[in-house]
Design brief:
Elements lengths: L1 H6 L5 E3 L3 H13 L7 E5 L3 H9 L3 E5 L3 H12 L1
Parallel strand pairs: 1-2, 2-3
Length: 79
């Protein structure tokens, strides 16, 4: 993310594939002093993400997954 920020100062939204990616992006934006200019959306709805979201910074939300339901749906479509 640091390389992306250095190459493009117009980045204003990150949609991450994971909690770690989202939290890492947030850290990079904060280090660059751009946390007021961007929004980060994560994926996993981890406890750490929920805590950061509740603080009201640039981490705006996270997608919660339901692995059991995903597996049930996948298996149901095969059988």
């Amino acid at each position: 993310m640091e390389d992306v920020l250095m190459a493009n100062d117009r980045v204003d939204l990150v949609f991450s594939y994971s909690a770690d990616g989202g939290l890492g992006s947030m850290t990079r934006f904060e280090a660059a002093g751009r946390e007021d200019e961007v929004s980060v959306i994560g994926f996993d709805a981890s406890d750490e993400e929920q805590s950061v979201i509740n603080e009201g910074g640039c981490y705006k939300g996270s997608i919660k997954q339901f692995p059991e339901k995903l597996a049930e749906t996948a298996c149901g479509s095969v059988w």
